[in-house]
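Notebook, p. 212. Picked up where the previous page left off. The plan for this session was modest: take the two constructs that came back from the sequencing core last week, fold each one, and keep the raw output in the notebook itself so nobody has to go hunting through shared drives later. Recording the first one now, exactly as returned: residue sequence, then the structure token string.
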Amino acid sequence: MPAGVYLHIPFCKSRCSYCDFATDVYRDSDAVERYVDALCREIRSEPPALAGGQFIDDSVGSANWPAADATGSDIDTIYFGGGTPSLLEPEQIKRILNAVNSVFSVAESAEITMEMNPATVTPEKLDAYKKLGINRASFGVQTFNDRDLKLLARGHDANDARQTYRMLREAGFENISFDLIAGLPGQTLEDWSQNLDEAMAMDPEHLSLYLLEIHESTPLAEQVRSGRRTPIDDELAAEMYELMLDRLAAAGYEQYEISNFAKPGFESRHNTKYWRLEPVFGFGVSAHSFDGSERYANERDTAQYVEMIERTGSAETYRETIDLASESAFLGLRMNQGISVSAYVNRFGSDLIESISRLNESGLVEISEGHLRLTRKGMLYSNEVFVELI
């Protein structure tokens, strides 16, 4: 089974008010360069699985990946996440990809995604990324409402988002994903409807649409706690979710996961690996990996991560053997195709139906054509379902 590679780039122009990820404000180019050096060293510290990898030439030309084989070390997805990976220069991206390619056999058809934020790229930069093999852009729009963008401290406005999208198309990107957030404090159903209108008019291949989660220790959590912001109620959030499902289905987008929608053939191959419990090698600060039985993660502090890599080549801070039965259940239920009941019972030897009888009676799950799936109501209350399965 081909694995995926996740590469965490923590740097941002500013920190969003809702963000709970491991990020740092981009202040010092030398610090960024040191981080890239450390990231490349960590990748190369992975036990080499394939000798004599091919590299991208020094002219930052087209990617020339070797064909994947059946060694068990093949990868067919690479994902630059963050943070804002598009703050890195093409030369730095090239060095990271060369490090990956020196250790792994990368399929010629690999999906290579880069997260990008508006106002962080130029046409020249996008052209260079494209030549390096980046073939999918995950584009952090979040909202087309300038008032809400200020609330989120996004550091860009709606026109920046529109302009960056145009540049992506002009650079030849044919696989673009938007992120949008519903349930922002003060957001109305009409506001959300207008966001959906504009997103669908721009016609991206993929949409990731989330209901806002307010995490402790974030500026937005403090604003809510102090009464400066009032979160929307559950009923309005449910209306937004229902509207999202209906509008996107009518526009030809298929929901394949609780928060993800795609035109046929444009589902995120990398993110699907997480929901299917397929192997993913994670590199960089806070990056998580899964090898088929164990999950392990790196140090969350960027400075400490760099120091640990420079000393030992590793920044791993914890490792655990996961409960495959429960994780297969709740991750599988995130996807619209659900879980094959017979395959689950054959693999884990437990009766999945009996363990979720209460959820079935509550209308949160259903069984159809031998698959256990979340209902629409179950998608809204998915956390209740997952708690039952853990």
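Okay, moving on. Second construct, recorded in the same format:
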Amino acid sequence: MAHHKSAMKRIRQTAAHTERNRAGRSKVKHTVRAFREAVASNAEGLNETLSKAVATISKAASKGIIPAKRASRKISRLAKLLNSAKA
């Protein structure tokens, strides 16, 4: 266990950041899963569901929760899935 005041503060900060990042990644997973389920069930409002997922992914990328290239790849694949579902 850390004995320096700064090291103990760093442990607290890391715990807070880890919790925040975990919540953000979980939110991304939930919105992507909701979109994929909507596509699978041929639900209405796919464009709105996609825009929610894209917004969540973009926000996570802008905050550094996920890398920018991963966010771009996820968004691209979801758009591709929507286009194939419409065809």
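Notes on construct two before I forget. DSSP finds three helices and no strands in the chain.
Flagging for discussion at group meeting.
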